[in-house]
Structures are given as C-alpha cells and as structure tokens.
Amino acid sequence: MELYVDSANLKDIKHAASLGFISGVTTNPTLLAREDPSLDIRALILDIHRTVGGHVSVEVVSTDTSGMLREANEILEWFPEATIKIPFIPEGLSAVRELANNGIPTNVTLMFTPLQALIAANAGATYVSLFIGRLDDITTDGVKAIEETCEIWDVHGLEALIIAASIRHPMHLLAVAKAGAHIATTPYNVLMQAMKHPLTDAGLAAFLRDHQKMVSAKT
Ligand code: G3P
C-alpha cells in the first residue's frame, strides 16, 4: 500500500517527503484554505510536486460538467502532471468519462460506499477515494467500506486504484493496508504517529549508551 500525504502544508510535505516513503500528495479546497491566504495556490501546488515528484491530486470546484472540464484544462495548462480530483456527483461522473476518454487521470472523491466506487470506476476513474473517518464520525464502519470495495475489486479484477482517505489514526492505516487498499492518503500527524514506537526509541537509546561505554572503556 502506497502512502500519500493528505495536506497542503509545504513544511509538513517537505519533511514527510524527506523521509523517503511518500509517493504522492492529495489536496482539497479545505486543506488549501488552512494555509496562508496570501499564498499563490498554483505556485504552492507546483512546489509540492517538485518536492514529492509523484502523484498530486488537484480538485475542481465547479459543480457542472462543463465547468469541471474547463477547470481541468486550466489546471493541466500550468500543471500537466496533475491528477484531476472530481467530486462524486452525476455531473462529475460525466466529466470523469470525458477526461478518461482523453487519457487524463482522475481521482473521484467524496465517496462513502463501495457502490459509489464501482460506479466511478465504470465512469473511467483512475483513482477512487473513500472517506473512512467521516463514516466513523457518523457511527458507520469506514474500514468496512474499504474492505467491501477491495472484495469487489478482487472479484471483478477492476483496475482503478483504491485510495483510503479521511484517515484519522494509525489503526485506520493498519486496517486499510490489511484490507488491500492500494493507497492511503494520510494526514502528516498520523504518518508521524505511525512511525513511533517506544521500544524503538528505548532500544536506540540503549544501543547508543552501550556503544559509548565500549568507546569509553577503550580510551
Ligand atoms: O482528502 C480529503 C480527505 O482525506 C478528507 O479527510 O479528515 O477532512 O475527513 P477529513
């Protein structure tokens, strides 16, 4: 399972990318709105892409098909490697089909059920993003949605890549990795939490202490 950073914060993205295990970044209007409003969004997204080098999803904000297609073309003019992120609404599906027919990668977002994911895959989506934390927020099992989606993908040999999104904690990451999600787009803080283990820290401290004892004994 690949790991993307779900963020528009360049400092966090740069740090995560420097650790060597990140292969993409997903943004959305809410994540962008958390950043300094004086920032040039285009420059920020290009900076993010330069930093990570892999997948970067950029979301459209139109709600009609022609508006989404216009935005997609505008985005591709200044960022040809973009994956166009499109909300799961009927107008969005038509846009996904049109973009897929032209070989442009799409990430269909704001999905909460395996059937929505199946429909998006049939419309030609390259990536299907299911939001698991927001399902948990309304007392519905988010991980189960990923498990069922992965099961459907296995049965039918579907090619769209399943992104587990709206990840809230490391247990989400573990569960979606076991379920078979292709990608988990993960907030920076959850990536940092997932790396931490007290026995790693204690073990390293002991190794360094013992090494120092050995060095001191020889001098
Ligand atoms: O990419 C957006 C998705 O991950 C949303 O996360 O935390 O706003 O539910 P959240």
Question: Would you give an account of this structure?
Answer:
The chain is an alpha/beta fold and 219 residues long. Helices cover 55% and strands 17% of the residues. It has eleven helices and eight strands. It has helices at residues 10-18, 29-33, 41-52, 65-78, 90-101, 114-122, 132-137, 142-156, 170-179, 188-195, 198-218, and strands at residues 2-6, 24-26, 55-59, 83-87, 106-111, 127-131, 161-165, 183-186. It has an eight-stranded parallel beta barrel with strand order 1-2-3-4-5-6-7-8, surrounded by seven helices. Strand 7 (161-165), helix 9 (170-179) and strand 8 (183-186) form a beta-alpha-beta unit. Helix 1 runs parallel beside helix 3, helix 6 crosses helix 8 and helix 8 (142-156) runs parallel beside helix 9 (170-179). The longest helix is centred in the last third of the chain and has 21 residues, at 198-218. It is globular and about 75 Å long. It starts with a strand and ends with a helix. Residues 6, 26, 28, 131, 133-134, 165-166, 185 line the site of SN-glycerol-3-phosphate.
Describe the protein's topology.
Layout: E1 2-6, H1 10-18, E2 24-26, H2 29-33, H3 41-52, E3 55-59, H4 65-78, E4 83-87, H5 90-101, E5 106-111, H6 114-122, E6 127-131, H7 132-137, H8 142-156, E7 161-165, H9 170-179, E8 183-186, H10 188-195, H11 198-218
Parallel strand pairs: 1-2, 1-8, 2-3, 3-4, 4-5, 5-6, 6-7, 7-8
Helix pairs in contact: 1-3, 4-5, 6-8, 8-9
